[in-house]
Design goal:
By secondary structure, the protein is an alpha/beta fold. It has three domains: 164 residues; 136 residues, Rossmann fold (3-Layer(aba) Sandwich), CATH 3.40.50; 78 residues. It has 13 helices and 13 strands.
């Protein structure tokens, strides 16, 4: 059996690479890099199946579903969200891709391990067999212990008010403050090989491992630190985020204003240990993923068709995708109506004309829609950024 490492190739969120790093620890080797947003198109040279741990935030390109028949999937740590509900840029379509053939595919490869209660509840409402697995990052092992020359704390994307209070508390001590951002420019990521990106994550996680404590508002910083038993404080802007349940109870957690204004006590000089109620889910997650790897190894040299649990033909999938894309297009055109600039509108008109010219050829129409929708994502991000500025949410960048 060959193995694929799931990555979000053009990500701006370091958390995506941390999840890939967590996945990598389970793989006997990495034979392929699977682009999360293009799993539908994956086809290995020898057309043999490739085992993939499908732990991720799925997905911006919601029409690129289901994954390729050459992927032997194991779904754990699965999250998706309606971008409007999550107040984020992206496709304003909730779970359309989990109906019809999308649902059938998931049922065939279930039960689905969900990263959060929001995803779990939605899957159950849709009738998809599922359970709460937790995020793949809680499976991370401890990194190398290195005694630093000077004690330090890590501040990861904290608000200025929180940082100001921490600096005041550490005045007169010999404790250093290291600040980090989990946002990276897409262009910088694309210049790196996947191995360089994984090496970067190991270096970052090792830095967190040897910190006195980590203060962050990023879930994808807090959960890895929880797994590595690094004292952690999560300063979250709301206790109602769809992505953070049940993790509020797994971490020392407070509102940033409560910490900054002294209504929440956290002793940085003697940081308290983290809660331990994540340990049982962590154990189960690790055991389940190792079980999948053992199963994949036992399949030997079987073909993709021999091990596939999804028997729909390519033409059936193309037709279903086309109907799904048409619905998505209708929603997006309504959402973006009157908000496209002249260049964007011209591109939209050009692509629609090309799609009409391929009437009767669903495969080519789908390929053109894919190209058009990738531009839609850029447009949605541009419009969303304008709205963010209007709302003056200068501290919000988790998109």
């Amino acid at each position: 059996m060959k193995y694929g490492l799931l990555m979000h190739t053009p990500t701006t969120n370091i958390g995506d690479d941390i999840q890939s790093y967590a996945i990598k620890q389970f793989l006997p080797r990495v034979d392929y890099i699977i682009d999360r947003e293009k799993a539908f198109y994956f086809k290995p040279e020898d057309e043999k199946p490739v085992a993939v741990i499908m732990a991720a935030w799925w997905m911006w390109a919601k029409w690129n579903w289901p994954p390729s028949k050459y992927i032997l999937p194991y779904f754990t740590g699965f999250h998706y969200s309606d971008n409007k509900l999550a107040d984020q840029a992206g496709c304003p379509v909730g779970y359309m891709f989990m109906e019809g053939l999308g649902k059938e595919y998931m049922q065939n490869y279930g039960p689905i391990g969900c990263r959060d209660i929001y995803t779990l509840n939605n899957f159950r409402e849709l009738g998809i067999d599922s359970y709460f697995s937790g995020c793949i990052s809680i499976s991370l092992p401890k990194q190398k212990r290195i005694k630093p020359e000077k004690e330090y704390v890590c501040l990861v994307d904290v608000l200025p008010s929180v940082e100001k209070k921490i600096r005041k508390e550490l005045e007169g001590t010999d404790i250093e403050i290291k600040t980090f951002k989990h946002y990276i420019k897409k262009e910088e990521q694309l210049k790196k090989t996947w191995q360089q990106r994984m090496d970067d994550m190991e270096e970052l996680l090792t830095t967190y491992q040897n910190a006195k404590c980590v203060i962050t508002r990023r879930l994808h910083a807090a959960l890895p630190c929880l797994a590595m038993e690094v004292p952690t404080l999560l300063t979250i802007h709301t206790f109602e985020s769809i992505r953070f349940s049940p993790y509020y109870d797994w971490l020392n957690c407070c509102l940033p204003e409560d910490y900054a204004e002294g209504r929440y006590e956290y002793d940085i000089l003697n940081p308290p240990a983290n809660p331990t109620n994540y340990l049982e889910p962590r154990k189960k997650l690790i055991e389940s993923v190792k079980g999948f790897i053992d199963h994949a190894e036992s399949l030997g040299d079987a073909s993709a068709d021999e091990i596939s649990k999804f028997s729909r033909s390519e033409k059936e999938i193309e037709k279903w995708r086309y109907r799904n894309i048409k619905k998505t297009d209708k929603i997006w055109r309504k959402e973006l109506k009157g908000r496209l600039n002249e260049k964007e509108q011209a591109f939209d008109n050009k692509m629609k004309a090309q799609i009409r010219s391929k009437r009767g050829n669903k495969k080519e129409q789908n390929e053109l829609y894919d190209k058009m929708f990738n531009e839609y994502l850029k447009q949605a991000r541009r419009i969303f950024q304008i709205e963010l500025k209007k709302r003056k949410k200068k501290d919000y960048r988790n998109i």
